[in-house]
Amino acid sequence: MTPLRQRMLHDMQIRNLALNTQKTYLVQVSGFARHFQRSPEVLGPDEIRAWIIHLTNERKLAPASVQLAVGALRFLYRISLRRDWSDEDFPLPRRPVKLPVILSFDEVTRFFESIPSLKQRAILMTAYAAGLRVSEVVQLKVTDIDSQRMMIRVCQGKGRKDRYVMLSPRLLEVLRLYWQDAHPRDWLFPGSIPGRPISRHAVGDACQLARERSGITKPVTPHSLRHAFATHLLETGADVRRIQLLMGHRSMATTARYYRPKVVMCSVESRSR
């Protein structure tokens, strides 16, 4: 490991960045250095700009992926190398604003009815009924389910934050059936490797299999189940601030994506009267 890579790793550890973020940033910086076949210490804004153009035009990366690469370089140069560079030296592509595709209540019901595996149904229903990210679902432990308070504890979710989310009676019923069948001890949803939780990839595969069985034509991912949770809460009259807390969103702007379709529909209806 080069001294610069070690320094950047230590800087990320000091700031308590998530392990996945640390790994991703190191990969991004390594790709940047390999492309120019020189140490990042001797590269500058011109090379950063050329790298962004290469990622966009040659590798055809989406704006979100390019932003991730720029974020890694911004950390390297501003934090680890202490370069006093402005935002203009790290140009970011604008991300298109897209509304999530939302499953209806009937589609959600049909989706879960198509899952023959009790474990897979419990996992995906937890993602929907608690509005969890797939990374949060796979990290749940048996002790995180508090049936007395009807709450689920999410330990160190995105942004290294703990939070509590609601545990619905229907989800509790499914989790109890699953526990009686599988008797998990530590991880709520253990994987094929002893002592390890189920992988996010395995949950994604289970989700796609359920979509195919259900005959739903809309794209369905564990994250779209989370989107459906937020939208269905809004449609039943839940307060937006409460939805923000349950979803673990840092910014209200993120939560706002879920009520834009409703606002647009109301506007269309008012004009048609």
UniProtKB/TrEMBL annotation:
- Keyword annotations from UniProtKB, A to Z: DNA integration, DNA recombination, DNA-binding
Q: Name one GO biological process term.
A: DNA integration
Ranges where the Core-binding (CB) domain occurs: 1-81
- The UniProt record lists the Tyr recombinase domain at 98-273
Q: Which domain of life is it from?
A: Bacteria
Molecular function, one GO term? DNA binding
| UniProt cross-references to SUPFAM superfamilies, sorted A to Z | DNA breaking-rejoining enzymes
InterPro entries given for it? Answer: CB, DNA_brk_join_enz, Integrase-like_cat_sf, Integrase_catalytic, Integrase_recombinase_N, Integrase_SAM-like_N, Tyrosine_recombinase_XerCD
Q: Pfam families under this entry?
A: Phage_int_SAM_4, Phage_integrase
Residues annotated as coiled-coil are: none
Which family, according to the similarity comment? Belongs to the 'phage' integrase family.
Protein name in UniProt:
Site-specific recombinase XerD
Source organism: Paraburkholderia tuberum
